[in-house]
Amino acid sequence: MKLVALLSGGIDSPVAVYKFLKLGHEVICVHFVHHTTVGSGIEKKVVKLVKQLKNYGTVKLVIVPFKDIQLEIIKNVPATVRMLIYRRMMLRIAEQILKKESAKHILTGDNLGQVASQTLQNLNAVYASIKTTILTPLLGFDKVDIIKVAKQIGTYDISILPYEDCCSFLVAEHPELRASPGQLAKVEEKLDVQKVVNLGLSNAKLANLN
């Protein structure tokens, strides 16, 4: 089975991808790049992660520039829910890539309660943005257990390299912890959702893993 995975530069998502690669599934990783980090090594870091994951199965990497999406969200969305709206857009873009690739499910490395956007209420509000089934194999894992697997599969030392991910600057001082799908849908009325999704898709590129 073919899956589309949201791949950050962190510890969790590569472990989630590994778990499905070892089961024999093909995984298309999608990474969103913050425009100020393109030249700082983040793409090289993520490519290195995916090359390591290739040791365990069939995997590709799609890079989606974040700049235009970032500007639309900052311009129209309150800081307290920007991270959640961004993640809803990220899932919508991933869902379109999934349809193009004839994949079946979306895979994430979400880990319950680890960051503000990953409370159960917030995850429910984010996941409600798409119809595709979202697989979350690490949701209830302890962080120490995820790190243990990351070290075993050779992704940990890459994941901890000090490159800023595309979400870090969107974190508000007091972010929303208990969002509802309706609340976020109301916020999105200020956005042209299809335009934002198309901005991501039009600039997406397949990374060279050779």
Could you explain how this protein is built, in words?
This protein has 210 residues and is an alpha/beta fold. The chain has a single domain (2-206), classed as HUPs (Rossmann fold). It has nine helices and six strands, in the order E-H-E-H-E-H-H-E-H-E-H-H-H-H-E. The longest helix has 20 residues, at 82-101.
Features of the shown structure:
single chain; Rossmann fold; six-stranded mixed β-sheet
Helix share bin: 40-55%
Taken from the alpha-carbon principal axes, the silhouette is globular
Give the topology string: H per helix, E per strand.
Answer: EHEHEHHEHEHHHHE
Output mean pLDDT.
Answer: 92
Largest sheet: 6 strands, mixed
In DSSP terms, counting alpha (H) and pi (I) runs of 4 or more, how many helices?
A: 9
CATH architecture: 3-Layer(aba) Sandwich
Summing up helix and strand content along with how strands pair, one would put the structural category as: alpha/beta
Approximately how much beta-strand content do the residues carry?
5-15%
